[in-house]
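Weekly modeling sync, notes
Attendees: S.R. (lead), two postdocs, one rotation student

Agenda item 3: backlog of single-chain predictions. S.R. asked that every request posted to the team notebook include the full sequence so nobody has to chase files. The rotation student volunteered to paste the first one in as an example of the format we agreed on. Action items at the bottom.

Example entry:
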Amino acid sequence: MFVECPRTFVRGLRPEFSMFVSLIALILAQPPAAPAFTTVTATETKSGPWKPLDKAALANLVSIRRAGPLPAWPRTAGVILVNGDRVPGEFLLGDDTAVFLQSKWNAKGLRVPLPAIRVLWIAAPPATAPEFPDRYSWLDADRKTDVVLLRNGDTVAGDIVAFTSNGQLRIKKTSDGSTATLEPGAMAAVAFNPALGAVRKVKGPIAHLVLADGTRLAVANPTADATTVKGAALFGTAIEVPVRDLVSLDVLQGKATPLAELKPKVERVEPFNDLAWPWQANRTVKHRPIQLQNKLGISTFDRGLGTHPKTTLTYALDGKYRAFTATVGLDAATGRRGQAAVTILVDGKLQPIPELSTLAAGNEPVAVRVDLTKANELTLVVDFGPKGDVQADVNWADAMLIGP
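Predicted structure, as returned to the notebook:
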C-alpha cells in the first residue's frame, strides 16, 4: 500500500499536526508483518515466519502452527473422507467415478474419487447433526449399501449407478430394484457404502493440513515454497494450497506417533454413581470434536484422547520414544464448570506437573512435554476433583509420542 498526502494539505497544517499526518502515512505505507508460525521438531520449539519445506526439513518436523486458534470443523456443504478428513465445498457435478467440488482455496475445482468419500453433503448439515458420521441417526452402522438423505428427511438406500453432468444421481434402489434419478435440489447428503471405501496408503511423511475455512486434508509427498504448499491428496489428486490459507501443518508417519493410534496395555474406567464414560480416540467422551479454550479462543483438534474421571491408561513404550507431548485441559463445551486431578507417570514415577493436579474450568490448557528416554511405560490418570465427575471431561489434545 502507498499513501501520499498532498503537499499543500500538509503545509497548511500546524507543525505538530503535519508531523502526525506524515507519521501515519509512513506507517500505512509499510508492508504488513509476516504471520508468525510456531515450529515443533523432535528436539525444539521455536517461532518465526514461514519457511519453505523440503524432504530434509520434513524428516525432523512434528508440526507448524500459525498463531491463534485452530478453526472448527466445517459445517457446510462438502465431503467427509474415509480417513476422517473434511473438505468444505460446493458440489458441482460428478460421474461414475468421482465428484467435483468448488472450494475457497482451489478455484479450479477438486476431483474426489467416490471410494475416498464417506459422506457428501450437498446441502449444509443441520445444526443438530452430529459431527461424526457414525452418530448419524439416518445411517445404520452395519449397512452394505449407499444411502441418500433427501431434504425432506426421507432416505433412499441402494447402489449408486452414477452422477450425471448436471448433478443428478442415479441409484438402483434396494427396496424394489428399480433405478431412480434424484435431482440435486432434492438431496441433502449421500453416504457411500463403507465396505467399498478406500484411501491410498503411502510411505514416508504425510502433511496433514488445516486451513482457515476448516478444511482438514492429508497430503503425500509434501513440499512448500514461500507461497504454496504442494503435494498429492491421499485420493490421488494434485493439491496446491496457498500459505496464506494455512493454519496448521502436522507431519504424520514421521517423528510423532499419535497416542490415539496405539492400544493401551492397561485401561481402566471407574464409574461415578454407577455411570461410566469410556475414553475415546480422536473425540471426546461425549462424541464431540476435541476442543480446548485459551485466551485466544477455542481450538478444534483432530487427534487426541477424550477422557473422564476416573480413567487410567497405561501404554507400553519399550524404550522407543524420546518424549510424550500433549495439551491437556477441560473440554471447551462440556467442561466449563468442572474440575479434575490429572497425573502422568513414567515407569511408575510421578512426573512433577503441578498445573495438572488442579485442572479447573477457566484455567489455560496445560502444554506438557515428558521425557521418555529409555522408558518402558507411560501412564495417564484422570481422577475426580472436588465436584466429583460433573463437567469433568478432560481432553488430551495432540497427544503424541516423539521418536528419536
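Discussion: group reviewed the output briefly. Confidence is low (pLDDT under 50) at residues 1-10, 20-32.
Action items: rotation student to repeat for the remaining queue; S.R. to check formatting next week.
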